Amino acid sequence: MEEPEMQLKGKKVTDKFTESVYVLANEPSVALYRLQEHVRRSLPELAQHKADMQRWEEQSQGAIYTVEYACSAVKNLVDSSVYFRSVEGLLKQAISIRDHMNASAQGHSPEEPPPPSST
């Protein structure tokens, strides 16, 4: 009769021991320790990724600024085409006047130069 009783007591002891080990292994302080280990292992890599992302963001912002500036310059060139046409007209008029003056200086009297335009 002692053997089944001993087995029962042994089973109770081992169950209590297992429960104690389980509670101890899952205690909040152990969980916090494991969390701290994980953070300590993964933090350097995460910090490096963050630094890389910041560097890429700065490079991207620089490229975006450059593209926006180039687009603005092209738009300004397109807008200034009116002024280029005006300068072209004035240059043609100046060449015509020069040709007329050269012809007058040589004794010829070519047709009258066109009057100055208001463009």
Give an account of the 3D structure.
- The chain has helices spanning 2-25, 28-79, 81-105.
- By secondary structure, the protein is mostly helical.
- The longest helix is centred in the middle third of the chain and has 52 residues, at 28-79.
- The protein has a domain at 1-74.
- It starts with a helix and ends in a 14-residue tail after the last helix.
- It is found in: Lysosome membrane.
- This is BLOC-1 related complex subunit 8.
- Its main location: membrane.
For the CA atoms, what is the radius of gyration?
46 Å
Low-confidence spans: pLDDT under 50, at least 5 residues?
none
Number of helices: 3
What structural class do helix, strand and pairing data support?
mainly alpha
Q: The biggest beta sheet, please? A: none
Number of strands: 0
Helix content: over 70%
Task: Return the average pLDDT rounded to an integer.
Answer: 87
Provide the β-strand percentage band: under 5%
C-alpha termini separation: 125 Å
List the defining traits of the structure above.
119 residues, mainly alpha, 3 helices, single chain
